[in-house]
Amino acid sequence: MFEFDEMQIDAVVAKGRQGLWGPLARAVSLVENSPPWEVSVPRAPRPCHIVGVTGPPGAGKSTLTGRLIESCADAGQRVAVLAIDPSSPLTGGAVLGDRLRMETHLSGRPEVFVRSLASRGSHGAVAGATRNIARLLELSGLFDIVLIETVGAGQTEVAIVEVADTVLLVTVPGLGDAVQSIKAGLMEVADAFVVNMADRPGVRETTRHLRLAAGRANAVYQTVATEGQGVDELRVGLQKRWQDLTEGDRLQELRLHKWSSDASLVAEAWVADCAATMDLEPQDSMHNAVNRILKEAAVRWTQ
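Request: output the structure for the sequence above.
Response:
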């Protein structure tokens, strides 16, 4: 198992403060290309706000994320962005679509760290290494907020809740996305809602529907990301959410719950990796096959 030590983190931080992201980018690559059980990232002494931006394809998540980068940076916040892109079927690498759509908003902002990650078929369209990478960015102490934009696989995006402190669900008027979100369970895991493209017909109805379903009128924002409208209000709302989380024990309790879920996900990935290398008998019963996999996985884990 590889574990980041204090000297390595100090080197990353020293370069990052100079606006040199090479060491951090290499550390991120190490985490991304390693199975989650082979990397250990210590818990950070100072937490930063990890925000997941999710929603159906075409809702304008990349444009909204780009505008949030501008708003947060202009307000003096140090920003990192993880853009989860679809994987190339040939190389397994990220297609970089989200990064390209953000370029306009990144121009002239070398202090913003942006990294594209390949989903590689991970559950919930969230790259398997994203959790460890977010922890690494937090551990560096270089950022106040980490934005994670998911690949936009619609009804499978619930997994983002296992990574983020705050989940933003982005939708648009007139597509019935609010109803689909409720069916998918996204309504239950989202902490705030953004009705993007709010200059389109149907915005009032969609906003009203979300407020009724969420039961929190102040958790729904309207934006026109292409024009930057409503983005500053969204940033202020996120800052208020972070302030509420860091007062008292709310953030600690939230992350302790995620820690147990994280351990389960790592265990699931480990068992799947072991099963992929085993020769199972087709005529064997399902019970026996599962029993063999679990025993073999347990043996390998203790070796």
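The two ends are 12 Å apart (CA to CA).
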